[in-house]
Structures are given as structure tokens and as C-alpha cells.
Design goal:
This protein has helices at 2-12, 14-49, 131-134, 155-161, 200-207, 238-245, 250-260, 270-312, 314-322, 327-365, 375-399, 403-408; strands spanning 56-60, 69-70, 86-101, 104-113, 117-119, 127-129, 139-142, 150-154, 168-173, 176-187, 195-199, 212-213, 215-220, 264-268. It has 409 residues and is of the alpha+beta class. The chain folds into 2 domains: 2-46 and 281-408, no CATH class; 55-268, no CATH class. It has a 6-stranded mixed beta barrel with strand order 3-4-11-8-10-9. Helix 1 (2-12) packs across helix 10 (327-365), helix 2 packs antiparallel against helix 8 and helix 2 runs parallel beside helix 10. 35% of the residues are buried.
């Protein structure tokens, strides 16, 4: 009997049913798309933010190391527990030298580093490490160095020495000198514009510091810091420490790196790490707010459509009450209709939302996202929530219909 009533209801009012179905499907689609993107947005935004500089600084400890780190330890960085979160790193060796070019002389900083070094780590995939990876925002007029006697020079230092790409500069230190071909002039907007950057091995030879580096900048994917992540590991219990160590906080990743670099002290660059964490939290909050807003709008649309339908069906409801139908029986009919529509709307909404998430991901991040398994039940639940929330007021109105007044007309 109930099945026949539901069937006739769908067949006799296709427009009303379609409007409710469309509202539920659109709400489920938007919720699926936003939640699907929110599940991936932290990772993708973290990848995007890695282009704004390293977030971990590795320096010699005050106790050991003799003021330097060992270059031979650098490949170990790609063997730590969080090795797949480390997107890149580059070492630096600094020295004060006198630069000479075209008759002009300036005292300044020479920095030996990697530009794009092919790093081979036993048991791991080969990777390219260096400035080009962790600082893609550097603007180089000219090209990056490719040979041991080539360098790039900061814009401010180049201006004082009146050097342009293709020029020559000499670095003088304690009777030793090294001539460099200037491959490019770099603009960063920071202190780097006062330095000359050359291949690490060449600067090590000039400074007589073979195999040594002054510091290492590490770029790593991390999760936003919370109160637990900011807790001092020394005060943690064994279980707390294990949880902290196995969570990709910037502090725990820094600890990972510090453990494999002898005589080192790793510390987060809080200016970058804190800004990233705050931004990711705000983005997730925005996505959640938009999802709730979309579901609320869908519920309002469902309620409006059902209210109009209930007004048309007042004689039907009055007749059912007149022949003895109670509140439970009337409610079961309208709730049954709504549930059937909501399940169908949830399935279609999931399919549409999944495609919408892919479109947004390709247009914003230029990549695809994997649809997690939990999105399908989430879409169905979202559709049910929209349907139930939107049917409360119409159902209440249906139960208040007075058969005498309606049938008298």
C-alpha cells in the first residue's frame, strides 16, 4: 500500500519531485566538491607554499661541529623518517672576500652552494637539490651557473661593481684568488642581493674549507602547528613523544633532520612556518564554511519546494486524515518520498561533485586529486541532512491540516 502511494506520488507530481531532487543533488555536489578539495588542499597548498622559501634552518651546534657541518652528511637528510616530506634542501658556505671587477673593488660575502645538484642516495631515488628547488622565486637575469668557475651575483653588489651578465669578477682572500664568469644577476628583495653565489666546491677550495658547510636550508611539507605540536618534547611522556615524532609538525621534521646531521642544531624558521600554518587553517575553515552554506541553501530550497507541494496536496492529506490515517502514517509517506529522492540526489550529487572537484583542482593547482572513499557516504549523508532539514517545516504543516476546513471547500 505504502509503495503504491509513493509510486503514484512520484508519477503525478514530476515537476515538484524534480525540483526537490535537483536541490538535494546540487547541495550534495557542492558538499562533495568542497570536502574533496579540503581533504587535499592542505597538501597542495603546502606544496605551493614551498616555493616561498625553506622552513627549517640547520646550523652547527654550540657544543660540537667546530663551526661547520660536514658536506658528506647531507645525503642522510633524504633517509630520515619524514624523507618524503622533505621537498628540497641546499647547503651554504659563507666567507668574507674582496671582489674586484673593472677596476672597482668591494668587500662582500661569497656564498658557496648547490644550484641544481644531482644527489644519489643509496637505496633511495635520485633527486635534484639546490637553490633552484627551494627558492624558485629568485629572479635571475641571465642564467644559472653550470660550471665550477661560474657564479650569480646579487643585484645590489652587481650595481656597485657595475657588472652585468657575461662579465667577470675576481674574489680575493689571503693571497688566493678565484675568477668567476658572471652567468646572471639575481634579485630577491633581501640580503641575498649583497652576495655572490658560486658552486660549493669552488668556494670550499677558495676558503680552504673542503667538505664543510656553514648552514643548510631545508624545505619540508608540514602540518599546521597546534598546542600539542608546540609542546616541549623534553616534557612529553613516551606515548606523547611517539605521537609528536610521527606527526609532520615542523618541529618534529626538524628533529628528524638534526638526528642525522652530526654536530647540528635544527630549528624551524617560524616566520614562514607560522604563516603557512595559519593560512592552511583559514583555508580549511573557509572550505568548511562554504560547505555548510551550500547545504543550508539547498535545505532552504528543498523546504520551499516541499511547502508548495504540501499546499497542492492539502486535499489529499485531509482525505487521508478523514478516513482514519494517523500522524505516523502520514509522516511515513512524506518521509519515505523525501528519503528516496535524497538517496538518488546524493548519488548523482556525488558523481557531479567529484567531477567538479577535479575541474577546480586542475584550474587552481594544475593537477588532479584522488577521490577518497569516505566522500561517497559523506555525499549520501549530506543529501539526507538536506532533505530532513528541508522537510521539517512542510511536514509540520501537513500534520496541522484540518480535514473539516479543507474538505468543506
Amino acid at each position: 500500500m505504502l509503495f503504491r502511494i509513493l509510486k503514484n506520488s512520484f508519477l503525478k507530481r514530476p515537476k515538484s519531485v524534480f525540483l526537490v531532487f535537483l536541490s538535494i543533488a546540487m547541495g550534495a555536489a557542492v558538499a562533495t566538491a568542497f570536502l574533496g578539495i579540503a581533504g587535499e588542499i592542505s597538501h597542495k597548498m603546502a606544496l605551493e607554499l614551498r616555493s616561498y622559501g625553506a622552513n627549517i634552518l640547520l646550523e652547527p651546534s654550540a657544543v660540537e661541529g667546530g663551526g661547520f657541518l660536514r658536506e658528506e652528511d647531507l645525503p642522510k637528510i633524504k633517509t630520515v623518517f619524514w624523507k618524503y616530506n622533505i621537498t628540497g634542501f641546499t647547503p651554504y658556505l659563507f666567507g668574507i672576500t674582496e671582489f674586484s671587477a673593472g677596476g672597482k673593488k668591494e668587500r662582500g660575502v661569497i656564498a658557496g652552494t648547490w644550484f641544481a645538484k644531482q644527489l644519489e642516495v643509496p637505496g633511495e631515488e635520485a633527486s635534484v637539490q639546490g637553490i633552484k628547488g627551494i627558492a624558485p622565486w629568485w629572479e635571475v637575469q641571465g642564467r644559472w651557473p653550470e660550471n665550477a668557475d661560474e657564479a650569480i651575483i646579487g643585484a645590489a653588489l652587481a650595481k656597485r661593481l657595475k657588472i652585468v651578465p657575461g662579465g667577470e669578477v675576481s674574489a680575493l682572500l689571503k693571497g688566493r684568488s678565484q675568477n668567476f664568469h658572471v652567468a646572471g644577476v639575481v634579485t630577491t628583495g633581501g640580503y641575498e642581493e649583497e652576495q655572490l653565489f658560486a658552486p660549493l666546491v669552488t668556494v670550499q677550495s677558495l676558503l680552504q674549507q673542503q667538505g664543510k658547510v656553514s648552514r643548510v636550508q631545508v624545505s619540508a611539507l608540514t602540518v599546521p602547528m597546534d598546542d600539542f605540536g608546540k609542546k616541549d618534547p623534553a616534557t612529553m611522556t613516551k606515548d606523547e613523544y611517539e605521537k609528536w615524532y610521527c606527526t609532520a609538525y615542523v618541529t618534529s621534521v626538524a628533529k628528524n633532520v638534526e638526528e642525522v646531521m652530526a654536530g647540528s642544531r635544527a630549528k624551524p624558521i617560524w616566520q614562514i612556518a607560522s604563516a603557512e600554518g595559519a593560512l592552511l587553517k583559514k583555508l580549511n575553515s573557509v572550505m568548511l564554511f562554504l560547505t555548510i552554506l551550500a547545504l543550508g541553501a539547498s535545505a532552504a530550497s528543498v523546504s520551499t519546494s516541499l511547502m508548495a507541494s504540501m499546499a497542492e496536496r492539502s486535499p489529499e492529506i485531509a482525505l487521508m486524515k478523514a478516513v482514519g490515517a494517523d500522524r505516523f502514517q502520514i509522516s511515513s509517506i512524506f518521509i519515505g518520498e523525501t528519503l528516496i529522492i535524497s538517496v538518488a540526489g546524493g548519488i548523482i550529487g556525488y558523481l557531479l561533485g567529484n567531477q567538479l572537484a577535479q575541474v577546480i583542482s586542475r584550474s587552481v593547482f594544475n593537477s588532479t586529486i584522488a577521490s577518497p572513499l569516505w566522500l561517497f557516504p559523506t555525499a549520501i549523508i549530506s543529501a539526507l541532512v538536506v532533505a530532513i532539514a528541508g522537510s521539517i517545516a512542510p511536514l509540520r504543516r501537513a500534520l496541522l491540516v484540518e480535514p473539516v476546513r479543507v474538505l468543506k471547500g
